[in-house]
């Protein structure tokens, strides 16, 4: 019997990028289409992905007619997502993943939320390259995720988790812990459907820096990302 990983290795080199957006958002109203750069977060991500040569197709999946229209105007494919797959109550996240990914025709999926606008085309291109090296041509990992290296003193409610108070260590000598960042997740379609998640149980942690890892969850994150992006654009000019 051929293992799943052996099957995955024989697949072609074709990638579809998915941007999943929805009408509702709890902390920032219409978060996915908040203004950013010369457009908004959704369009900004679409245009970044268009500049990634290894991506063959871009699909925007949403319950929002407004967002689907924006995607269509940008020339990418759209998937109308029924509200039960977007309200975060009726269907589970896993069921949403299954619904979205089952309609994808390519072998690999690049899941790219638009809430990390500083994860740009250069980073995504490098992530795809690393995915091929570490997952497609190797059996060490099953997926690849954007992550931030965490070198901080971590406690739960009762005790330290990554160090001992009896023996102080410098922060740089703490063990490598990672925070998963909603920048980019890459996996085979087979594994996404099997796991009902955008990455697997043995992900390769692709490290991105503090600036790149800004993940927009509230107004403060959004404003910081805008300021940094504007400065980066001015610097390029």
TrEMBL record:
Top-level taxonomic group: Bacteria
UniProt keyword annotation of Lipid biosynthesis present: no
Assigned keywords, A-Z: Nucleotidyltransferase, Transferase
InterPro entries: CMP-NeuNAc_synthase, Cytidylyl_trans, Nucleotide-diphossugar_trans
Pfam families: CTP_transf_3 (PF02348)
An example Gene Ontology molecular-function term: N-acylneuraminate cytidylyltransferase activity
PANTHER family in UniProt: HAD SUPERFAMILY MEMBERS CMAS AND KDSC, N-ACYLNEURAMINATE CYTIDYLYLTRANSFERASE-RELATED
This protein's name: Acylneuraminate cytidylyltransferase family protein
Protein source organism: Brachyspira aalborgi
